[in-house]
Amino acid sequence: GRGNFLMFWELGNYGFFNNDYISEESLCINDLGVELRKDRSYYHNNMTRDYHGYLFQYTLDGCGIYKKGDVEHRLTKGKAFFISFPEDSQYYLADSEESEGDANNRWKLFYIHFSGPAVKPFFNRIHDINGSVMDLEMDSSPVSLFYNLYASLQNKKELGRYKGSEWLYRFLIALLENLEFSSKKASPHVALAIDWMRKNYTKQVNLNDMCNEIEISYPHLSRLFLKEQGLTPIEFITQLRIEHGIHLLLNTDLTIKEIAKRCGYSSANYFTKVYKKAMNVTPSQYRIGIGGRGTGPLSS
């Protein structure tokens, strides 16, 4: 049951020394952890705090408060907030009256503190469709991704160089997908399009061909997709391809041209243009940053 599941969330914190070019210029995990807060002195003002980047914090048990302006959000189990610094807001432990029945004035949570220019489009999209506070099931993909990473760190497995940026991209995609896809059930044509793109994104495909197969015009599908999912079919298939590209850059010695082909792009130049727009660095800069790719665990 869920109670037993909580037992596996042992307390701990992990910091990461990111001294590589890629992290600074793209996506970077600074620190993360699981904490249990019981002291009423637990209070953070996000405007004056000496913190930078972004913070995602999820309630595992108990209750905390996130306050922005005059609005107080009660962060009970399954609720999270996602903010950037500085921000005119605070978060703190609920007092005993507010937390009555909420695990006796305690707040068990996990957090991820991260930074990098490639976070911004995800952050903006998530805030546009959802705001700062969100609901996520314990078995949702973002929570599962964090749990698997955290369990790996607890088992003394190091987060390999550049693996942090790959993981963070996957986490942000999962968060965005969860908020967009779970808010409403996809209509039949949109569901068919999502399935088709997941199966075909590694090929050089024409989305008009997809529309012919699922019997809908591209303009109509694009309007439906944007309304239901918050992005266009092109943006959706691009996300799939970028995630695949990151994986291939990290785990193979394939040329940029070959990786472009395996991500469904006809040329390395076009792949590079799309990749840089998403990640703020080119695939080649990523490779230069990694360096020494001929041997070692990253080679395929």
Structure description:
The protein is α+β, with helices and mostly antiparallel strands and 300 residues long. It is built from 12 helices and 10 strands. Mean pLDDT is 86; it is low at 1-7, 98-103 and 290-300.
> What is the end-to-end distance?
39 Å
Beta-strand residue fraction? 15-25%
**Low-pLDDT sequence parts:** 1-7, 98-103, 290-300
H/E series: HEHEEEEEEEEHEHHHHHHHHH
Summarize the structure.
The chain is an alpha+beta fold.
Sequence-ordered SSE layout with sheet pairings:
Blueprint: H1 2-7, E1 12-15, H2 21-25, E2 28-37, E3 43-45, E4 54-62, E5 64-68, E6 71-75, E7 79-84, E8 89-93, E9 107-115, H3 120-129, E10 133-135, H4 141-154, H5 163-183, H6 188-200, H7 207-214, H8 218-229, H9 233-251, H10 256-262, H11 268-279, H12 283-290
Antiparallel strand pairs: 1-2, 2-9, 3-8, 4-7, 4-9, 5-6, 5-8, 7-10
